[in-house]
Amino acid sequence: MGTLYLVRHGQASLGADDYDQLSALGHRQSLRLGEYFATKGLCFEAVLVGGMKRHAQTWAGIAAGLRTGADATGTAATAQELQASVWPGLNEYDSAAVIGSVHAGETPRPTTPEAYRAHFRLLRQGLQQWAGGGAAPQGMPRYADFVQGIVEALDHVRREHSGNVLLVSSGGPIATAVAQLLGSSPQAFVELNMRLRNTAVSELAFTPKRHTLHTFNTLPHLDTAEYADWISYA
């Protein structure tokens, strides 16, 4: 039996011109997660990442943390150099297109608490509509096709691997994967998505036949007072 570690990217740059970049905190979160994996002696036989910049940057931080953590603990095996496989099916939905499908006017950039709340209220509405088939955000696939891209990545893991595998993606694909495993309604992924924290780890046990949910949305690497203010959601 293998274990698939699903990791959401580090904090991105909400409100900036380019959201698809890790913030300074996002880089620190990613590095810290790699250090934690090293202290646990984790070795990964494969790494899958989405094709977005924040996915690649998160993996780069984890890999750096694995190396520095291995140096500190003497567990050299965790510092192995792995080439990540890029899976476009693990890319996030387009939040601007989702919001645009339920709100015709301009929305303020989410740089204030009020704008932040408005952004996520509209995003929740748009995701519910998209998942239920009631909205077609411009330039985006149908939700069923979005799901299929994620399922293909999970199927690949089951077919090709039997040990520890790391998958770095975003909240939407990870929430969708969990909702699929639980047999939840399409719209249920929205609430799972909204609760996922940056660099949160969800674990799936897998065999050649199936995946089984083991943990969801955990932050073992930040679970001390020292890192309490590193916890973020966007």
TrEMBL record:
<dbReference type="InterPro" id="IPR051021">
    <property type="entry name" value="Mito_Ser/Thr_phosphatase"/>
</dbReference>
<dbReference type="Pfam" id="PF00300">
    <property type="entry name" value="His_Phos_1"/>
</dbReference>
<keyword id="KW-0378">Hydrolase</keyword>
<dbReference type="InterPro" id="IPR013078">
    <property type="entry name" value="His_Pase_superF_clade-1"/>
</dbReference>
<dbReference type="GO" id="GO:0016787">
    <property type="term" value="F:hydrolase activity"/>
</dbReference>
<dbReference type="InterPro" id="IPR029033">
    <property type="entry name" value="His_PPase_superfam"/>
</dbReference>
<protein>
    <submittedName>
        <fullName>Histidine phosphatase family protein</fullName>
    </submittedName>
</protein>
